[in-house]
């Protein structure tokens, strides 16, 4: 299976996928990354892709006349690589209707909180501020909402009294990386079906 991974930052989730595929071999893992896309330049995630010899593309909102134009550009750039699955790994933009029309049902996102709690761009900060005793991460399919698609897997992380946002996020990311690698591999090898809010991986 062909994966396109979308990033916006350090790309440690991307790196975890790259390392797993290198260690297991694309055949055994069931997928290989064919390209990495981003919404901005100058991020470590793109350096990781280049270091792995992967093609990259950058679609910046400000380069386009409208959000719809940006979404069209992102869709076309992604489609050029003919992905079987798109993995949003720390991609910090909400994809639009055009992208979902093209790839809907095969876009996987990872979120650093236990959805439906704490959706949006500050899930770690919000859980901490709320005083949650446990939080975690969620791997889910993307639908037309924000972090609302069918849940595939979740991992629980305890919140410690001394945690600040970055300490907690780092601890979440340790669980998140493992969860994402496992889920993407299973989806690629076994296939899947989505029945309402239920994801079935045979
Ligand atoms: C991840 O925790 C992701 O869930 C969140 O931002 C982080 C991205 O980390 N949206 P990285 O870029 O994969 O290191």
TrEMBL record:
Pathway: Purine metabolism; IMP biosynthesis via de novo pathway; N(2)-formyl-N(1)-(5-phospho-D-ribosyl)glycinamide from N(1)-(5-phospho-D-ribosyl)glycinamide (10-formyl THF route): step 1/1. Coiled coil: none annotated. GO terms for molecular function: phosphoribosylglycinamide formyltransferase activity. Keywords: Purine biosynthesis, Transferase. Transmembrane segments: none annotated. The record marks 147 as: Raises pKa of active site His. N(1)-(5-phospho-beta-D-ribosyl)glycinamide binds at residues 11-13. (6R)-10-formyltetrahydrofolate binds at residues 67, 92-95, 109. Pfam families: Formyl_trans_N (PF00551). InterPro entries: Formyl_transf_N, Formyl_transf_N_sf, GART, GART_AS. The active site is at 111 (proton donor). The keyword Transferase applies. Residues 1-184 form the Formyl transferase N-terminal domain. It is an enzyme of class 2 (transferase). It catalyses: N(1)-(5-phospho-beta-D-ribosyl)glycinamide + (6R)-10-formyltetrahydrofolate = N(2)-formyl-N(1)-(5-phospho-beta-D-ribosyl)glycinamide + (6S)-5,6,7,8-tetrahydrofolate + H(+). Its EC number is 2.1.2.2. Catalyzes the transfer of a formyl group from 10-formyltetrahydrofolate to 5-phospho-ribosyl-glycinamide (GAR), producing 5-phospho-ribosyl-N-formylglycinamide (FGAR) and tetrahydrofolate. Belongs to the GART family. PANTHER family: PHOSPHORIBOSYLGLYCINAMIDE FORMYLTRANSFERASE (PTHR43369:SF2). This is Phosphoribosylglycinamide formyltransferase. It comes from Streptomyces beihaiensis. The lineage of its organism: Bacteria, Bacillati, Actinomycetota, Actinomycetes, Kitasatosporales. The gene is purN.
């Amino acid at each position: 299976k062909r994966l396109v991974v979308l990033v916006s930052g350090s790309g440690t989730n991307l790196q975890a996928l790259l390392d797993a595929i290198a260690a297991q071999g694309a055949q055994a893992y069931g997928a290989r990354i064919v390209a990495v896309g981003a919404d901005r330049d100058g991020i470590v995630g793109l350096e990781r892709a280049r270091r792995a010899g992967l093609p990259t593309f950058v679609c910046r909102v400000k380069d386009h006349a409208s959000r719809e134009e940006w979404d069209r550009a992102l869709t076309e750039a992604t489609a050029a690589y003919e992905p079987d699955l798109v993995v949003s790994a720390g991609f910090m933009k909400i994809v639009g209707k055009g992208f979902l029309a093209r790839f809907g049902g095969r876009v996987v996102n990872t979120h650093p909180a236990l959805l439906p709690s704490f959706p949006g761009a500050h899930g770690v900060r919000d859980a901490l501020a709320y005083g949650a005793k446990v939080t975690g991460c969620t791997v889910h399919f993307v639908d037309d909402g924000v972090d609302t698609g069918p849940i595939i897997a979740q991992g629980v992380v305890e919140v410690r009294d001394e945690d600040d946002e970055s300490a907690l996020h780092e601890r979440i990311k340790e669980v998140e990386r493992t969860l994402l690698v496992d889920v993407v591999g299973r989806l690629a090898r076994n296939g899947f079906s989505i029945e309402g809010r239920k994801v079935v991986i045979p």
